[in-house]
């Protein structure tokens, strides 16, 4: 069935493989009991390619540590969503795209929450086949639609989403893989269907990460899979502000986004020509 998944969707299998590997560590930052099944046979193969590029046998590592980054990202957004869910006004959580995420199944959620997962039909079908009889721990609504379609908002509303009520959105593992115009278009559309006070979170790289020579090894892996990194920004706060979100950005390794696992120095934002990744989070004005 993985033959029906396009190149970008296969990166969801990489993420699942990374989460499965993290879950086997004695010092794991989270436990995802569904990740190994969701990774399928392809996920570990993709992870092996990333590990070979990141940790060369006969040379010093110069690329960011993808396993440590993914562990921190997953835990950061776990904490972010659970904190949002503790707010009595939070009744809607939207993962777009959902990929092979299992938070609806592995975390505890208040009864008042409706939990929406948005992704392409091929992803939804593959995920359902891998989860088997697993039951979500929340009022779970699946929306099988492409985020680039002209009317995905109507599909989301048909599933029970109310744009007049505050919501929490997570755009995880998306913005590097889409063109700049598409990034702006998605943020504009999310802004248009979120009520004031709604939350949003996402990860995004900076523009330098797309061009620096020492990033080439990792970029080549993703490009070889047919899913090159296409967009980054040095000013993520300004990007989200344009669409009505007052946001802040934190880098892995900074307070609140470290968990004792980030192995590299964190350059100050004033330093130029260095690779960065940002965890952006904010509120709709």
Largest sheet: 7 strands, mixed
Radius of gyration: 18 Å
Shape: globular
Query: Would you identify the regions where 5 or more consecutive residues have pLDDT less than 50?
Result: none
Helix/strand order, N-terminal first? HHHHEHEHEHEHEHHEE
Helix content: 25-40%
Strand content: 5-15%
Number of strands: 7
Q: Largest sheet, order of strands side by side?
A: 3-2-1-4-5-7-6
Individual helix count? 10
Task: Record keyword descriptors for this entry.
globular; 285 residues; alpha/beta
Describe the structure.
There is one protein chain. The chain is of the alpha/beta class and 285 residues long. Helix content is 37%, strand content 14%. The protein has a seven-stranded mixed β-sheet. α1 packs across α4. It is globular, with a radius of gyration of 18 Å. The mean pLDDT is 96.
